[in-house]
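Task: encode each sequence below as structure tokens.

Item 1
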Amino acid sequence: MEVPKDLTSYVRVLKLASTPSREEFMQVSFIAGAGIVLVGLIGFIIFVIMAFMPGGV
């Protein structure tokens, strides 16, 4: 592992990175939020199904 080589690659990546525009940020936030809600909904549906099964929760 060559430390100077690693540092230069990190600096190069940081130079290429840019702050997202408000539109990009809102789109990513919406998609991430929708994913969180979807996973929660699936978990809730599984919980409801298990609660009504004999010997469930």
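Item 2
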Amino acid sequence: MKKTDEKHSFYEVFEVFSKRNFKSEFQHQFSLLAPNHEVAIVMAQENFMRREPVVDIWVVKRSDVRKLDPEEKASLQRLDNKEYRLTKGYGYLKKKWRQYEQQVLDEKEILSWGGEQGAPNPNSTGSNPK
């Protein structure tokens, strides 16, 4: 066995993911070689967290990360059409609301139906009763 093979059998590859703030998603940052999880976390903190502000990190062995086989990917296809369950967004609502607001009568328009301003009120006699 070569010396380089010994070195690689001792170290494992770890993938480091970080989260910049509480609302953001985890993002892959880099890979590193470490002998175990504890050392990998310390190395990730030293190499990454001191440079950029983060609220959380994940350190995962690359061998523990699994992807789907082609057969498994095929099972993800939808068997029936249920697009009605997908949210397409509500972008059209702003336009509909604007149209609605244009149709709503405002106070000045309603008051203008009462006749001309300054016209005498037919219910008043124009003189003070004594």
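Check on item 2: The chain has a mean pLDDT of 78. The beta strands are 12-19, 27-34, 56-61.
End of task.
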